Fold this sequence. Notes:
With 403 residues, the chain is mainly α. It is built from 19 helices and no strands.
Amino acid sequence: MFALVVALMLSDYMARSVINAVLPDLKREWMLADSQLGLLVSIVPLIVGIAAWPVALLADRWGYVKSITAMASIWCVATALCGLAQSHSQMLLARAAVGFGEAGYGAVGAAMLASVFPAARMSAVLGTFQAAAVFGTVLGVVAGGVIGARHGWQAPFLWVGGASLLLVVLFPLLVREAPRTAARAALQPGAPLRQAMREVMATRSARLTYVASGLQMLVLAAIGAWMPTFLAREYGLAADQAAARAGLLFLLVAVGMIAGGVLADRAGRARGRTKLQLAGVYTLASFTVLATAFALPAGPVQMALLAVGTLLAGGHSGVAVSAVVDVTHAGLRATAIATVALFNNLLGLAPGPYLVGVLSDAIGLKSALTLMPAAGVFASACFLLAAGSYERDVAAKAARPAS
């Protein structure tokens, strides 16, 4: 189950990010502005952010296996349709369909893992799951650059969408729905929508963590979407070379997610709130390093700082999801994690690429990317504030009855 859930996360983000490598081709062929290119990237997380919450609420009631199979089928077919687009508007519609298919998957997949692994390992497990998104982003960008350079920009969409359908076939054959625990069944299937909304927003630490995670995702979204273009423009690299180098650089985000989760789990054994404090340190440090890096001229020093900054930028990911799980009713795990996804997408992943595109049109890409990491300062403040009430919220959850 873990292997297939992670593999589908890879597929999810390959489908989402393969377009990043072919943005220069689309700009030339369709004569697009950077803001239009950014919209093609941002439309997917925008739709995900809008649809993730209701989809995850349905999955909590309908069942995780059936929900995942349906979602993956949609995003695979929609990705292939992107390769058949003949205009910006057609591509935008196909990308919106990708987002609709992907809505809720991160939450439902994480909820499946949270139902299997113990709390003491949760940050590391969920950090690894989130890291699969980065590996998928890297594979999508690299595959888009390599395949697109040899076979045209349409081919990466067709290859990624088609190959991912194999996972869709295997998933329901090899994974079975876990039995519902008493706690999970307590809110199924008749819990009113208002009760679910009230539960996932009930605690101060959860609310602050939602905002913090979303703000830091703005930084990751800007880097992920625009790094290939930045390297192509600043270092004069061909599209496939820029995509490969950006992919290797962004791979460090995945390392940071896994290592950050492991360190947070260890630090939180003595005192639970320490893991949220560490998340605040990660986000503040990433701002400092990345803002400095983008302000420097092209060269080895800039590349070294970009590597360190991207490593730090993902350290918060597993911590954010595990902290929300810790303070939320077990019957609404997918819905609570979908709330993290909602804030991640609407605060970070959706506006990030588009805002950079708009700023790039006005002041240049380098200056736009120098400004974006400032979101990490506000993310850090929210994580540190969340840490102050985390232990009290965990105790309150434990004191509540299961039904």
